Amino acid sequence: MSVTSLAHAALNPAALNPASPNGIEVPLREPAPFVVVDDLVKTYPVAGWGPGGRRVVNSVDHVSLSIPEGEVLGLVGESGCGKSTIARLLVRMTSADSGSIRIAGKDVARLRGHDLLDFRKQAQLVFQDPFGALDPRMRLGHSLDAPLSAHGMGDRGQRRAIVLEMLREVGLDESFYDRVPGECSGGQLQRVVIARALILKPRFLVCDEPTSALDASMRTQILNLLLDLRKRFSLTLLMISHDLRVVRYLCDRIAVMYLGQIVEMAPRDELFERPRHPYTKALIAASMLEENGLYGAAALGGEPPSPINPPHGCRFHGRCPQAEPLCHAQPPELAPLGDGALVRCHIAQREVASAS
């Protein structure tokens, strides 16, 4: 079974039929997930040459995941692990080296013409920095009107009515139509950025660190807004964050990335109550330290290895307190461990096998 099939089975245990002939589990026919990422690879060239030729940054390295319609999946990890690259790949702001992305049953890389325009309506990105996402000289109403105008949706009066309605949906009154970004707070601008992402009525929203530039009170307000909008607009979401508190508050399932790979994926409560991968455990410990005001304390030592020259074997072995010779020699696979969890760790897999 492929990694994508395993991911689907992990979030839908009923998708496996343990009573199949010969005791082999085979997938039953189930509705396909709304978003399917299969064996995705994205590299970026950098200056210089290595033994194998031109050096590259391995930003996304054979990532597979799926998101059922209506779910919020969290994607967490340290800066540089590949989260934002996945965000750009999902909305086709950049192209993958290999692998595929299917959204609503359509292969994103193959879309052309009207199909591509329709995809642009269906999948939208909420950017991290609201100040950088908006033209500082353009009135907010015009910024929200731009996508409608580009897609030929209505006349000027109709578009203005749509913009005013969307401003109300995100908790802003009509006075914001004529404001410029410099007249607004960070929280207000993030609401505008969310409104612009929703103006075309997408079905899939990718949120790339949408609260990282905000203070704690504004962060909670924006997260509550996203929860409300998810229900009202029947959205499927990917929430990208380095903050586990954010994904714990908002998400149904969480995937943990390290150095371009997913190392653990599980339902939210399962991941926080029974983390399996040592890296996930370290992230949770660091989050607990921050909650207790110990911002200078480190739960995980060292720095991630270079994505230009990732280590052989498990990529985490140089920072892992449990590493053993097998971890240095052989890269672990992302494997199901029950309860909807997938883990890329020799030790965690062995512990579960021994207990069963």
Automatic annotation (TrEMBL):
Lineage: superkingdom: Bacteria
GO MF, any single term: ATP hydrolysis activity
Single Gene Ontology BP annotation: transmembrane transport
ABC transporter domain: residues covered: 35-284
Principal localisation: membrane
UniProt KW keywords: ATP-binding, Nucleotide-binding, Transport
Topology class, membrane: Peripheral membrane protein
Cellular-component GO terms for this entry: plasma membrane
Location of the protein in the cell: Cell inner membrane
Keyword Transport listed: yes
Protein's UniProt keywords contain ATP-binding: yes
SMART domains linked to this entry: AAA (SM00382)
Cited SUPFAM superfamilies: P-loop containing nucleoside triphosphate hydrolases (SSF52540)
PANTHER family from the UniProt entry: TRANSPORT ATP-BINDING PROTEIN (PTHR43776)
Family: Belongs to the ABC transporter superfamily.
Name of the molecule in the record: Peptide ABC transporter ATP-binding protein
Annotated organism of origin: Bosea vaviloviae
